[in-house]
Design goal:
By secondary structure, the protein is of the alpha/beta class. Among the domains are: 79 residues, Glutamyl-trna Synthetase, Domain 2 (Glutamyl-tRNA Synthetase, domain 2, Orthogonal Bundle); 42 residues; 84 residues, Orthogonal Bundle (Arc Repressor Mutant, subunit A). Helix content is 45%, strand content 13%. It is built from 18 helices and 13 strands. The strands form 5 sheets. The chain has a 4-stranded antiparallel β-sheet. The longest helix is centred in the N-terminal third of the chain and has 16 residues.
Amino acid sequence: MKNKIRTRIAPSPTGWLHIGTARTALFNYIFAKQNDGDFILRIEDTDKERSKIEYEENIYEALAWLGLSYTEVYRQSERTAIYKDYLKKMVDDGFAYISDEEPKEEGQRSSVIRFKNPNKKVTFTDLIRGDISFDTTDLGDFVIAKDLDTPLYHLAVVVDDHEMAISHVIRGEDHISNTPRQILIGEAIGANIPIYAHIPLILAPDRSKLSKRHGAVAITEYQNDGYLKEAVVNFMALLGWSPQAGPQATNDEIFSLEDLINIFSLENVNKSGAIFNVDKLNWLNHEHLIKLPPETLTSKIVEYLPEIKNIPETTINKIIALILEKINTWSDLEKLIEQKEFDYFFQSPQNITKDDLKTTEYLPQTIELLQSITEENFTADRIKEVIWDFATEKGRGDVLWPMRFALTGKPKSPDPFTVAEILGKMETVKRLNFALEI
């Protein structure tokens, strides 16, 4: 196991798993898969006051939805005896000491365990940023535990990475300043120092810190909002990584998780911040939607539009194509259905008034022209071909508006030629005659 690639994601269950941590998990997962290695989940739940079981469950749920499976899972709260052994040895060996402190407030503890800083220069090679050096003198003798039973972050993370034989620590650039402390602790306990890669932060469009308003929400919210996991994974990969570089450079931007495992490279991760662009996410989701297998699409749309099952399959496919033009996510479809956007495909509009139609002067000729088209040739292209010159001569608004409204009962809808094809010749003529009677 010593030489095996082992990466980890170490979220704290003090909040929902958001897109920044999920992207870090994705990069770690891909790197492990590329190298036939292990991807490990470590729940860093030593903050007893803020850690909550619902947040921990959300971590499991989000990673499962994204398809990021892990080979091992650990909880820091179950490893306190291990940390205690390391702390004792560090104190015994002179790498740490119990420091009596002046309590800031009455009743607070008066001692902590501090790391004895050797005050030296630390240099490490970052896979993304190259060589990085720190003079650790400014860090002083920093605190690594409140007491033998209560380790703090820096001690726990170094012990865990050592015990779990983590070979690569891939994490956000906000952790760069933590690295020198962790290297010092690693050297003190005789650990193999992992290879580091610090990925850029995800920023709002104005390059400010990403907030909930811009997309820093739980990954499960994207699931609930009707995004496909394939699109979210694709989007996260493009946050800071460029597919246009490297030996497998491509201008494509639509990738499955399997594609990413084949072409992703840490060396092609940018140093500068990654901009969260919800329009890009929506575009990617639309592209993944239209790539879904027809049976999957039909099955999903039936969940929202159960009445679609009662019409011929060829008509179903035409309606689905129309729906896909109007949505980026499943929640878009849900909203359109709430607005009764597609009702006219399943029931003829009844509450049409003469004012809605504006004019019925040319409806008789429109009906006559449509009647001239055979049932098998009743396609949008043929309908337009037959109607267009007449509409141009008499005024397109006066011909096409009443035709559209008679068919859909709506001022806004797909073009009347497409609607007529989907409805079929018999239903189209029937609705136009109903409007003519009005």
